[in-house]
Amino acid sequence: MTSRYSKRLRALEAKGRLRKMIPLQHEGGLVRYRGRALLNLCSNDYLGLGQDTRLRQVFFQSLDSAECDLWGFAAASSRLLTGDNLLAHRLENEIREAYGSEDVLLFNSGYHANIGILPALFGKGDLVLSDKLNHASIHDGLVLSRAAHKRYRHGDYEQLHALLTRYRAEYEQVVIVTESVFSMDGDEVDLSRLLALKQEFDVKIYLDEAHGVGLYGENGLGKAEEKGVLQEIDFLVGTFGKALASVGAFICCSKEIRDYLVNHSRSLIFTTGLPPVTLNWNHFVFKKMLAMHQERKQISQIYRQLRDALKGKGIATRGSTNIVPVIVGKDRTALNMAEQMQELGYLVLPVRPPTVPEGTARFRFSICADMVWQDIEELPEKIERMLKGVCR
Ligand code: PMP
Asked: Which structural domain, as residue segments, surrounds residue 350?
């Protein structure tokens, strides 16, 4: 008898939606896949720090073997028990100073942060307004929260204004939750519109900078730094898993909120803390990232050039950042095109519903600091030919 799990898996496969894990071997900006070296165009290692073997050597050489308890692989307990250590506080302090925030609290990942902060801070009597394209971890955080929540159409500030006009008075506290750079559309939130709403309706702003940290702003602190509004964001979440080439996350907030989260955030309290070696590496890469002005400039030049070239060929793209999506519509088309791209030497993976809305399957290029324009200059023409059905 076929189990319901097999049936569901087959149904996914029939729709071209079966997800699989692919073990990859990384070689600098290239990945070895099915025996071939491909240019990795879907990495989140935006600053190229994850593949920088020299940097890793420098880091390991900097570790003093006499202090090897400071670079162990286990916290062995929650930070609320015996898993806390000075390295976590040193990292929080470094981030706090860079952002000029009152306080900072680490989480084990961006997922832990969003599912732990939202339910802890917002409950009965509160309303959370969340952009429809927000990351799954934000959505899951809202499912865990007792607060009422409504999702507004992506980037639709008119709808947000209407929702606030209608509902603000009914709730004690209202918060708008949004990503700064949307990972599947490569567009960005309009912070000035959000801050105007904050003023008008006395709401709080929760900003997830997972795809902004490292890339935007003079010191790479994200879109809020780029727009000069860091101090106006009530809750700013950053992650270490992307441009910072590690694992972990942080929230910049007030001291009161930090204390509250330490007492109420379940994904912080009931999990083992980050290991000392990771805390050390995070401190090392965070400091390095602050000074990577040249890399930020280079990424920005290349993604602008790619966006212009795609537009020049009439190829549908969206957004304004280093994440450059090409929307092709049908799941199968995205799947076929990604396979063709792989044959041409580029690692591109299809992005399909439910990660993106129905009918908007796509692939997305992420432009990283270890790329040069020559690596990708032929892409627009190749995509144009694929879309015309020439390149089969
Ligand atoms: N927020 C956003 C906007 C993300 O894109 C991601 C990861 N894709 C996360 C949070 C989760 O971060 P992490 O990978 O550190 O769990």
From this structure: 15-44+293-391
